[in-house]
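Sample pair:
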Amino acid sequence: MKKIIFLALTGVLALTLSSGGVTREEIEKNPILKGKMLAKRCSWCHDINKTIVAPPFKVILKRYKDIPEETLKKQFFDAIKNGSKGKWHDWLEGHVQTRLGKGDVMYMPPQKPYYTDEEIKLIVNWLLTLKK
């Protein structure tokens, strides 16, 4: 089932990107593009610059700007794979109101059912390119 979802997502994204001049072959050959493609599912909650229901990627990167890159890669990998709760409580309180009440009910669910370790590494590497 996971492979079917991945193939469907890959196909839709490849069609979308091919109209913008990026082919499926280019995505497969470029690990950063592949990480970006894989991170499309993240956009259900995260955006690069604006708040949806979770902190924008740029806000996350700003919070961890003083962490060495290798340490940050491990922290992001663990947070994506295993999820996290409570690290963004204060930020959520000020930025997110849900149907269930305050942002303290929000958390990052584990993504290990949806991504392999290698795919998570690709997402993390793409995410770190947003620091520049």
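The helical segments are 2-18, 24-29, 31-38, 57-63, 69-82, 89-95, 117-129.
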